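Sanity check

After download, print the first record. It should look like this:
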Amino acid sequence: MNPTRRTLLGGAVAAAAASAVALPAATTLPAGATTRRPTAGRLSNLGHLDFLRDFVTPPPAAGHTTYGSGPLGVLWTYADHQPDGSYRRIGGGTYDPVTDSYGQGAFNADDIARAAVVYLRHWKQFHEESSLRVARDLLRGLTFLQSPNGNVVLWMQPDGTLNPSADPVELPDPSDSGPSYWLARTVWALGEGYSVFRGVDRGFADFLRDRLEVAIAALERQVLVRYGRYNVVDGRRLPAWLIVNGADATSEAVLGLSAYVEAGGSAAARRALGRFAEGIAEMHAGSTREWPFRALLPWGESISDWHAWGAQMPSALAAAAEVLRKPALLSAAIGDTAGFTPLLLTSGGPDNGWLPVPIDRSQIAYGVDARLHALLAIDRPGQRHLAAFVAAWYFGANRAGEPMYDATTGRTYDGISGDGVINRNSGAESTIHGQLSMLALDAHPDVAHLSGATAYDGLQVVEGESGSGGTVVAPPSAWTGESQWSNGAYLSFDGTATWTVPASTQERLVLPVVNLVSTAAPRTAWTSGEVALGTLTHECGAQGISAAPGALLPLTLGKVLPAGATTLTARATGTAQVDAVLLLPTISRLRVGNATLLVSVDSRPRVVDVRGRRTYTYDSGGRLIARGASLVVPGGFTVVLD
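Expected structure tokens:
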């Protein structure tokens, strides 16, 4: 993940940036306490999210108004787990007890917007009036943060004072000076809010519509003015009309625009929806055997970056396709969900960063929820089966082997590190996306509840610097501005380099992760023993807006590594830089309890010996093509149940 893009993004895994100064007693929730009792038969429980809520009467701020009068609904950003098992609500940045303020703030637009979506969806599913009231409160707080230019101030202090320029600095600075993630999420909340309130409170709905139109005008003026233009990124043309150059940010705006247009929104909203969806669809990349395996890339400034957090692109395309009646938009979403997601699951789950090597292997609810909603949005039988494997993360099918969600309190923990350590904090982002997932599962009771011992047999990483025959180089910074050197180092060689690789009973795809360059590109010829695997040219296209010359990319060799092979050799003409070698079994596996997922990148159909009473074989789009035999087809996946 690019650490400069957004300090709060993916921040659930990190410790909250606040001091240990004691806060008022009202900000602490005793161990096991909740403001709501769990409802029988439901996974969703808004208790912990209720605990994070608060009210504030802000001092006057020029240009900032909202609907009606009275205190505004807000949401604390973090909830730190205390030694006695209780939770303390805190804000972001360093806390100053003299001024009772934070370097960033106590409440932020990102979380207020997404929490509003939770309560809106809860009301739509269960028609509990309390959820509708809370949604209204939060939407009033959110719209107070909107500036007259349509943009949004991100942070608010405990007393309601706006903090447009946070410490540490976040871009844009001031936070309402341009398009942003928080503007996109505001559009999401306002769109879903209008869809709900137009049927229950027309006056408030009209207010939300007016504010949404101001936001859409800001997007037209600042982003969609570039519609039809493309940026060059290391030789690839990527759409220049994505919000903050992100398909991830844009996808969240598309969710709101889809709800608004479906509810009768304006021609301007329909136009914006179509153009944003078109841009997202153009971020698809790779193929069945080529990285990133048909994924939708999230960032329009890198062809080497995929992350789970915020990757709502398939869900957004599915929503837009339905509302606009443009089924062609579904193609890229189907590729992402039926092609990339199964491989992600067998390789360990929704990691925070493949850059392009799976480097940031921490996992948070924001990423898990995005995968779950993407699969459910496509509404095909294969994707429904995959959704069960994704959802199992919440119930213990993860690297920690422990549940990440507690239905008795409504808490979702703040993430799991790459080595399986749980962050027991439970802040707003994790709580919100945990509840969005639980609401989705409550709405889809046909999605199986999987749990039990978990075993992965998927993508393996051999570090480049583990090879012999070259020079190990450790750059001053592992982050290049668009990608990241795995383990902070690479092997540079002009001649022959050899790697020892773990043995496998299967054939494997070999994807050397090499630094592509635009001039004097080296070539490498790869072998294993006497078997020639292929030749690569390490050549990159024009740099364009990319932050660094060249590109770190996995390139697939033409032939597979034979079963049992334990060495790889590369002979370079020119100076080659190898960051890592990715090894992908032709049939990768994930087992959760009594369920097995098999994923094929093979070139031919295969029958796999795996125990199970029920077998479902899906093609590369998630369509059911066979039952009863453990058949796996190229680019497809198979689910086997004991």
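If your output differs, re-run the checksum step. Summary of this record's structure: The CA atoms of residues 198 and 345 lie 40 Å apart.
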